[in-house]
Amino acid sequence: METEPPFRTLPYTGQCGRHLMAAEHALIGLSPWNGYFTARRVETLVEWAAGAFRRVDVFIPSYEAAYTLIAAGVAPAVAVGRARRAVKKLRGPAQRALLRAGCGEGRVHTGTSLAARPRYLRLRRTVERTYHQDPGVRAVCRAVGRSAVAGALAAHARTASRPEPEREPGLSEERLDTAARYAWAELPVMLDSPGIFGVSSSVLVYHRRTPLMESLLQDDSALRPAPGQGFVVVAPAGRASPGDAAGDARGARRRRAAAL
């Protein structure tokens, strides 16, 4: 009797579904200061992906996460320290699960580490240039930054030795630009993970739909994903919506085919 998988999958589009069925590569996105990503869930997610895809990598925003606190008015030194600790809490479980699954070292990446890869760096520069030139890209990046500020500030308020404001402060244009750096780090892996990681197709895995990913799929977007790039919502089986059944069926067919 086949065991029920711990996660259900929902591709954004039909093309994303085809990349999911190919199962060549998954890039798991993890977010600091997000209560969804407990150590246990991170390990379970990585282990599931390692059994479903031929190759798995993990991406965690690093120093860019500190920009969200800095934009909220937290001292830079404090912000960097808290970002470093938040990333460490995600990196450890991800690395343990990857090693247990036999995926080896060097599979957990940050914006800082990926900057050594020419394709990521070129895309990062393209993102920054487009941010300053295109109002649509600027608006969605600022919205992502604003949301990240709220989450980071709430987490900081719970752990700070001194009381910090629990509500998101009003952000000036300059501070919005600072917070938007969080999105700048993420966008390259959304645009061309295949090019960055040297595969023909890849799906970016996250636990919910995000405005940033959805914006890239709009016909009028100034930034367009590479042909091999896909996006997939991967949620716990018990929480998934009925619409995820199609993703489950595709996954089951792929697993049966792989077993032949």
From TrEMBL:
GO terms for molecular function: aminoacyltransferase activity. Residues 161-174 have a biased composition (Basic and acidic residues). This is Cyclodipeptide synthase. Residues 235-249 have a biased composition (Low complexity). Residues 154-174, 234-260 are annotated as: Disordered. It comes from Streptomyces albireticuli. Gene3D superfamilies: Cyclodipeptide synthase (3.40.50.11710). Belongs to the CDPS family. The keyword Transferase applies. Keywords: Transferase. The keyword DNA damage does not apply. InterPro entries: CDPS, CDPS_sf.
